[in-house]
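JOB MANIFEST
job_type = single_chain_structure
chain_count = 1
residues = 135
[input]
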Amino acid sequence: MSGQDGIGAAPGADVIEAIARAAIARLPDEFRAHLGDVVLIVEEFADDETLAALGLEHPLDLTGLYHGRPVGEKSSMDPGALPDRIHLYRRAILDEWIETGVRLDDLVVHVTIHEIGHHFGLSDADMHALEDAVA
């Protein structure tokens, strides 16, 4: 019996997405009402261009990213703007999960709420309060 026997497969993108969508569904109405156009994307890693733009060298250093303009900065004069996107990076999330021992669902909720917080332009304290609200 090898050391890997009895260890299940790492959770796939579908599991990460399901946890994130469940967290979004538990958000207070006033937040959910403004998330209709936000696209949730689960990818293995951030691409090299994204990492370079953030000054990061290793893809495992980035668990999530919000692409877009915070709600308060949006304008109807932004023709043809891409929809806002929340990217969750599966391999970085799994790496942090293993390193920290935090429950996977708690970690995914934390990363998802943090990125949603950027959508709303929230402070870190507000993001923690929102995270507590969906727990």
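[summary]
The longest helix spans residues 104-120.
The two ends are 39 Å apart (CA to CA).
exit_status = 0
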